[in-house]
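Action item from last meeting closed. Structure (228 res):
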């Protein structure tokens, strides 16, 4: 690749990475804000999340445009092409995390209109686990840290197990406290949303490994479990 073209590819890739890193930071912040709105029963804070998500959507559009530009004008190959594809996929996961934060903020707004219910220790553990997985996946992306990315993949089972226990508990409480039905349903929604954050963190970690090692780990666990 001629030096001039190589310099342009590196410049455009740096710009693409920069937008994705900025988007990732906004996603961590908006998720934290939506969960704080739940804990503090703060509808005004929940309303801010909707506005904050617009910045994430704008970055997603900018990344789409830049990816098309790089593919059309730079014609990246090998490692550079893997990085472009990985960043595009990561941006998709980040945009969906922004949507999840909006969903949680909607639950926070509704919960604030009802008498408070006990959120429970397990929901707090799930929140911490999901946010930790996301933070680690984002750091693995920023630093291209494959070992950290692999550690994120190992956290998904714990998140899934917590989700199941919390939902079973909420369903059990519904039969005993029908007056809290709406609140319990919103807590189930929040639980499912946090599990989805864990799934998106796993996706991001898989893309980091793909970019760094050209190993596609999508659906690896499910495929490995299938009888041969």
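Sequence:
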């Amino acid at each position: 690749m001629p030096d001039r073209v190589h310099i342009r590819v590196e410049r455009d890739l740096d710009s693409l990475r920069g937008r994705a890193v900025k988007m990732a930071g906004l996603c961590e912040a908006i998720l934290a804000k939506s969960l704080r709105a739940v804990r503090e029963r703060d509808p005004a804070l929940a309303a801010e999340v909707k506005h904050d998500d617009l910045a994430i959507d704008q970055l997603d559009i900018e990344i789409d445009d830049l990816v098309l530009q790089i593919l059309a004008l730079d014609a990246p190959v090998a490692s550079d092409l893997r990085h472009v594809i990985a960043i595009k996929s990561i941006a998709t996961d980040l945009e969906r995390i922004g949507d999840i934060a909006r969903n949680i903020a909607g639950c926070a707004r509704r919960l604030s209109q009802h008498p408070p219910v006990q959120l429970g220790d397990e929901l707090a553990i799930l929140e911490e686990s999901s946010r930790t997985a996301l933070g680690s996946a984002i750091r693995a992306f920023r630093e291209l840290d494959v070992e950290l990315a692999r550690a994120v993949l190992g956290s998904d089972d714990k998140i899934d197990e917590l989700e199941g226990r919390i939902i079973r508990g909420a369903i059990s409480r519904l039969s005993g406290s029908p007056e809290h039905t709406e609140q319990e349903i919103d807590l189930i929604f929040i639980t499912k949303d946090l599990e989805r954050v864990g799934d998106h963190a796993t996706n991001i970690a898989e893309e980091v490994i793909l970019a760094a090692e050209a190993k596609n780990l999508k659906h690896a666990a499910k495929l490995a479990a299938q009888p041969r």
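Note appended to the action item: DSSP finds eight helices and no strands in the chain.
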